Amino acid sequence: MKNDILHRLTAARPAHLDPSRPTPSPVREEELATVMTRPRATRKARTTPQPRRVGRPLVSGLALATAMAVAALVITDTAPEKPGTAPSATLGSGSRVLLAAASHVEQQPAGSGTYWYVEEHIGSLRKVPGKKYTVDVRTEQRYWTAAAENKQWSQLRDLGARPATKTDEAAWKAGGSPTSWNLKGETFTYAGKGEVQHDAPGGTADTVNMGDLPLRLLATLPTDEQALRKRLFALADKDYNAPEKILDRIVVDTAVQLATTLPSTPALRAAAYRLLAAEPGVRSLGDVKDHTGRTGYAVALPSPYEPAPELRLIFDKSTGMPLGTETVATRGGDGVSKGELLDYTTITSMKWTEAAPPFDTDTKDPGPISAPVDEADAEAVR
Description:
The chain is α+β, with helices and mostly antiparallel strands. The chain has 8 helices and 14 strands.
């Protein structure tokens, strides 16, 4: 029997969003749209800083984003037009960037090793209630993937919070340079907590992320973009009860994973780029710098639902390899301005290695997080 996505989302839906209740439709649509964009991630400790979105926190990652998108799309019946075949001579600038990146990335050496290792720095920008500045809550996530064994290890480290910009730093200093912030019941510190969780296969923290592609299937995926789209659609259709347009979104989310952090071969990564190049509305953002100062070029993938944040992909200009992602607000409201950066992920290492993960058991359950507090009471403390 296929998984019923809506059934699995019931627990995550606020009671007032139940369609049987007399809540105005625009309210349901708006709130569902704001929760559909968490980033893809492996198992996270409950004490882990979470990326903030418009009205809440990817990805992250993409698996939960897919599931939330399903709920929003089913209720609102809105989605982008179904992509056509491969891009033509009428390509937009974003498609051209992705095709250029595909040409570069498929020339990269395939490499080999027991483990595919990825290290990411994740930043979540959060406004400090009652203050005139924003802090960047930073974490580091590491993955070791043994695709042939369908296993993955992960480690999460709290790197501490910092004023997000020079302007924020000036306001922070003017406010006495606090080194701790209580934001919605969770405390973040300047120093950070260091490692907050590690997870090994077979441990109690293992979960099945909705929408994720089983690692063992990577070697079976075609490297022609149209064949890849058909295969990913068939896999999604096999696993989920959902309309065709929602399965199309699962295909796109999976393609983003193949393009970024999964242990794809150069040919498969290039096919994922070309699949994304066929998406309607993809556009170029030109030359950019990532959050470590590396120069690359970026494209923006439109959200399937208008109020949701926009996903931006950044690529190395010479190799076509992914440098990271960003999410950006597509409208103002809830203290956020249109075009404002909400969070980012920077890939700082991606390689095959024989070095095994430094742990083979799970971190002890950290227990419940601190109780929530009212925003009005949440403030920076010395």
